[in-house]
Amino acid sequence: MRLLLVEDDHMIGEAVLDLLRADSYAVDWVRDGHMADTAIATQDYDLILLDLGLPLKDGLDVLRGLRARKSRTPVLIATARDAIVQRVAGLDAGADDYIIKPYDLDELLARIRALIRRSAGRAEPIYEHRNISINPGTREVLVDGQAVILSSREWAVLEPLLARPGMILSRAQLEEKLFSWKDEINSNAVEVYIHGLRKKLGAGLIQNVRGVGYLVPKT
Question: For the OmpR/PhoB-type domain, which residue ranges apply (predicted)?
Answer without folding.
Answer: 124-218
